[in-house]
Structure formats: structure tokens, C-alpha cells
Specification:
About 80% of the residues lie in helices and about 0% in strands. The chain is mostly helical. It has one domain. About 0% of the residues are buried.
Amino acid sequence: MNRVTKILLILNGLLASLAASASDVSATAMEETSLFYTQLWFWVAVGIVFFFLLVILLRGSNRS
């Protein structure tokens, strides 16, 4: 085996072990993180971004 093949095999083993350990996440942790869109801070952040995009688009259209 050449050097590149050995490195790829080691990398593949590391990624497989990472995937196996990531699948052990409990259901409660998944439930807590998947409901971020129900939080007030998320909608405030979305509103601020939308407002700034709207201001940028409206100011850009005034220049002719």
C-alpha cells in the first residue's frame, strides 16, 4: 500500500467512528435543539435581518 491509501484508510476510520458516536445523541437533546424557531430571539433576529435588507433595497432603488 502506498502512503495515500494508508492516509485515506485512517481518515475513513476516523470519520466512521465520528458518525457512530454522533448517532448516540439522546432524543431529548434533539428535541430541545430542533425547536429553536419557536424562540422569541430567533424571530427578533429574522425581523432585524429582514428590516435591514428592506432598507438596503429601498435605498438602492432611489439612485438612478
